[in-house]
Amino acid sequence: MIVAPDSFKGSLSAPAAAAAIARGIRQASPDVEVLEMPVSDGGDSLLEVLEPAGFRPVTIETSGPIGAPLDTSYAVRGDTAVVELAAASGLNQLPAGHLAPLDATSYGTGVLMRDAIERGARRIVLGLGGSACTDGGAGLLEGLGAELRDLNGGQLGRGGGVLRVLSSVDLRPCLRLCDGVEVVLACDVDNPLFGPTGAATVFGPQKGASRDDIRALEAGLHQWVECCETAHPVAGALAERPGAGAAGGTAFGALAGCGATIARGIDLVLELLDFDRALETASLVVTGEGRLDTQSLRGKAPAGVAAHARAAGVPVVAVAGRVDLRQTEARTLGLAATYALTDLCADQQQAMSDAADLLTQVGARIGRESGSYS
């Protein structure tokens, strides 16, 4: 049996959730072999879930989203490096209670990528999620060597708020650095860079952006793309590509300056974990996340896990803090059953604080009922 949940945001990391579910299964069915294989869609817990698959951490000094020195890590296995944007440029790296919608930058993530490439990585998997910035990936490319100049020819400051005064961009240094390196973006959204469904309008408020901030960020992103077009004639088309607006437009920067491709985050993670091989001997898969709802239908981690299990002919059930899917929708995902922690504890806040114990209880139930899913 494989236990492969994503994180339960606000409660448990993916590995902690997997451990709690597996503990219950083993208590109820001690003879069942349980493989804990927590997953991520490219955001929370990405590096942590890859450690058991042989990825080792490399820790360096970079800078956080508002420029403070920061020691953080990426992961390496062979010539593949996995970089988690949130580890350097995420909301979780801002001082408590401090949001910086105009000033936050993706620069620190570019420094991580540069270090990985200079140490010999030929494939970079960049996990996009939890970003603090809306700079269109300008900081990322600067961290990789790009030069951004203002109207006076001076070096441009960092953050999405200054892109309005960007005058010129030289992408050649980062294009040279990334030559021969495959850069793949783990992305679970399909938003373009700008417009009513773009990075500033949709995600800016989550990063503390006011209406005036959103207008400023939108104008900056347009200026950023216009300047990029002098070095990359198809930059405008790249900005319209689904997913280009991910992580405050960091995806666009990587597309334009690194020749990156976009892939569904959960599929990349399952590939790195060699999940399909594990399925060959599995009798049941247990997946889950904090909330199962209509967003889950759009390719989030449990949907990806379920799709791979279904293709292998392995039944799959899901556990969530809260389940807002109808039975027909759950069946669309290929789920044989769903379990909600709120069925055991009606108080949602209490369910979040007691998530580990509740997941163990659900795991025990799954252990007892596992034979009914085959």
UniProtKB/TrEMBL annotation:
GO terms for molecular function: glycerate kinase activity. It comes from the Bacteria. Keywords: Kinase, Transferase. Gene3D superfamilies: Glycerate kinase, domain 1, Glycerate kinase, domain 2. One of its GO terms (biological process) is organic acid phosphorylation. Belongs to the glycerate kinase type-1 family. PANTHER family: GLYCERATE KINASE. This is Glycerate kinase. It comes from Luteipulveratus mongoliensis. The lineage of its organism: Bacteria, Bacillati, Actinomycetota, Actinomycetes, Micrococcales.
